[in-house]
Amino acid sequence: MEIRHVDAVAVRRDLDERFANAQKWIDSREYCLVRVESSDGTVGWGECWGPVAGNRELVDEWVAPWLRGQDPREVERIHDDLVFRLRSAFHSYVPASVVSGVDIALWDLRGKLAGEPVGRLLGGRRRDSVRAYATGHFFTDCDDFSTLRERVVEEARGHVDAGFDALKNKIGLARHFPWGREEDVELVRAIREAVGDDVRLMSDANHAYDAADARWVADRLADLDVHFFEEPMPPEQFDAYGRVNAAADVPLAAGESWAFTEEFDRAADAGAVDIVQPDVTSAGGLTSARRVADAAAARGLRCLPHVFGTPVALAASLQLLSTLPGEPMLEFDRTSNPIRRRLVSDPIDNDGNGVPVPEGPGLGIEVDPDAVEEFRVGEAGR
Ligand SMILES: [Mg+2]
């Protein structure tokens, strides 16, 4: 058994209405998928975090020639060899999104070749459905704060009506609007008042604050019984995270911007967070995300993976979540995304407050070739 074809598949779609978090306005969704085919014609799909540019060229021109001819069942060996080779090539930086896309595709392929869902190969399923929290409540174009607050509250009510009992909202308005930390807290308070005390709330600042503002906001989020406070500061500020986390009554969470076990170890050493959030498309794939989850559990930290991608990322995350100890939650992106809705023949949806783990072999999804062609950009085969 050997790998015959490796291709980057770029998909993209403009959105009708843009939205923002504290980092950026989002007016399109684009992804670099990875398609790996073995010598018997079995196909595995993976997904890289970030823009198509860079990911596509590395997969097609650098990874593919090296990967062809290797045994697709040796996923962790390939993961580690690829990291080693990329470090040699780039010295100060390993493009973790590329490792991730390739690694997820190989796990999908390995599962399909074995006739087993990936969760079973990752150590065994503990659950068939994962409690989900609705991610949304982004910022929209708006001139006055009360209108923005009303939109966010209306969205929160809609998620609760759809069966969710856990929600995550965005804070960090100051980058885009003439409002600041007071309005950030006011958004959370308005959601809390609208949905009541029985709904679990989380807040995500996407690096908006310095340590002083992070502490100020953390105190107020704790008063509103917020379950975790995500990425208050830029992710490389491990020491500041450690100080704020030690002082705060709300647990800090971060990890979507960290990759590989070494970076998560550094965060754990600094006491940066109580909750780690590896993203399978950027942390180094399922191989690294599982290692991060194991290390977190050994140090008393909770692992709640970050998810903001296509059904490939969603299914891979569900496979990992099916294996984690405790009571993990799925991040379930509710923003507008035609690709997420249509890329697979059987869309992944919530059933009340949970999302079922796909049952089939590999990631358990069937990527629809017609949908791929509909969303595909750039040269076919590139
Ligand atoms: Mg986040």
TrEMBL record:
Keyword Chaperone tagged: no
Pfam families, per the entry: MR_MLE_C (PF13378), MR_MLE_N (PF02746)
Source taxon at top rank: Archaea
GO molecular function term, any single one: lyase activity
InterPro entries assigned to the protein according to its UniProt record, in alphabetical order: DgoD-like, Enolase-like_C_sf, Enolase-like_N, Enolase_C-like, Mandelate_racemase_C, Mandelate_racemase_N_dom
Region (Disordered) location: 344-368
Domain Mandelate racemase/muconate lactonizing enzyme C-terminal: 149-251
Entry keyword set: Lyase
UniProt-recorded name of the protein: Mandelate racemase/muconate lactonizing protein
